[in-house]
Write a structure and sequence with these properties.
Layout lengths: L10 E3 L5 E3 L13 H12 L5 H8 L3 H14 L9 H4 L4
Antiparallel strand pairs: 1-2
Helix pairs in contact: 1-3
């Protein structure tokens, strides 16, 4: 098996004991962003698996969009990224 060279770590362990690796990241051409995919990217950046700039370039995200994902994961976990919960969690409804 051949392992590609990466600038950062190959895997990171999250505070809950979950391990994520580059294989867990969504494909670069992902267009349908469900909450679970957003969470993986946000956690990968938050815990140092990939650099913020790399995530923005790879997934064609704006800096604000990625910041929103990271903030939602930090404050509310996966449910913070679900579109149906955004108004409730932001205090709207």
């Amino acid at each position: 098996m051949y392992l590609r060279k990466t600038d950062g770590p190959r895997v990171v362990t999250l505070p809950d004991g979950t391990v994520i690796s580059h294989d867990d990241l969504p494909c670069a051409d992902t267009r349908r962003w469900v909450a679970s995919r957003k969470a993986v990217v946000a956690k990968a950046v938050l815990y140092g698996l990939i650099k913020r700039a790399d995530a923005i370039d790879r997934y064609e995200l704006s800096d604000d969009e990625l910041s929103d994902w990271i903030r939602a994961v930090e404050r509310h976990g996966l449910s913070g990224l679900k579109v149906t919960r955004i108004d409730v969690l932001r205090g709207g409804r």
